[in-house]
């Protein structure tokens, strides 16, 4: 009787996991019925995700499909993580309002140096297949590319919303851009994908994979699209916009960035970017609806995200640091030290990396975002004295030597 009960519980748990794979962080499923059938058949599926190294850091927006990849991995399926070192050079303009410039091989090589390590914060690399698509795309000849291109019409490409908008505005569209979906589709052929995961902006490319697989005598992959997440400014999280929370961010910076989010993103972040149980997330939502300060729930969110990418101990430390420096407005007992070449405050801010440029330093000063020894400084000609404490924003402190 106990054995039967345990088997029944295992079956319920598996069914719950399958349901969550198909629902949580999922915008659309193609072909939904076929995918459900495969998942319940016991067949070990090959589940694919490709990410182009167009910047050095993976951000939380990228974690949505990576977490979905891990969900499949935990169900016992074979996941395939493709680092698009070839497609990264060509450039995908699926979500762009203008042409994405080609990157050099050197830039892509530099960007991808830690991609595997960063992805390993989410997926179990020891059980995953990790591929670079230059392995096969770099070997294609014109004959093979011509055969692939013959499958599709120009009208299919230009009917895409962002492409048609660019055409209407008279913006340039390069022939190179037409090739990108073919390359992503051919990736699916080469690794024999049963399922591909990607953002909603990738739908055309994902569907291209289904079509190309047929031409190569393979069964068409099923597709899961995930929603895109908003960044620190409320717009779509994007490295090019600089509104990201990166997987490589230091614990204090990561915690502080999460705390700067709009309150209406708290539940969305919990749902898409963590694996906190949905029942618990529902409780958080009800608490806020009953009057709990959203900041209290946001602290739980920030703690969970830092825990995921660092450790529970570092998440505790980051929370304590935030509460002391922001809530209690105390100066931290420990902070980075910096010896500038020029003690002018604009020079110090830019030289220390607290701002990306001297122009940004002046803007931050003008907005009252800089303090020296607790006093707001707006004067761009201000000279910072040695042993002063420089504060930029709410949680960034620097001791000037």
Q: Would you write up a description of this structure?
A:
This protein is an alpha/beta fold. It has three domains: about 1-225, Rossmann fold (3-Layer(aba) Sandwich); about 250-325, Orthogonal Bundle (Tyrosyl-Transfer RNA Synthetase), CATH 1.10.240.10; about 335-400, RNA-binding S4 domain (Structural Genomics Hypothetical 15.5 Kd Protein In mrcA-pckA Intergenic Region, Chain A, Roll), CATH 3.10.290. About 50% of the residues lie in helices and about 10% in strands. The protein has a six-stranded mixed beta sheet with strand order 1-6-5-2-3-4, with helices on both faces. Strands 7-11-10-8-9 form a five-stranded mixed beta sheet, with no helix packed on it. Strand 10 (about 390) and strand 11 form a beta hairpin. The longest helix has 22 residues, at about 1-25. The N and C termini lie far apart (about 70 Å).
Layout of strands and helices, then pairs:
Blueprint: H1 2-23, E1 28-30, H2 32-41, E2 46-51, H3 60-74, E3 78-83, H4 87-90, H5 105-111, H6 115-119, E4 129-132, H7 134-137, H8 142-149, H9 154-158, H10 161-168, H11 175-191, E5 195-199, H12 203-215, E6 222-226, H13 251-259, H14 266-273, H15 278-289, H16 294-309, H17 312-327, E7 337-338, H18 345-351, H19 358-366, E8 370-372, E9 375-376, E10 389-392, E11 396-400
Parallel strand pairs: 2-3, 2-5, 3-4, 5-6, 7-11
Antiparallel strand pairs: 1-6, 8-9, 8-10, 10-11
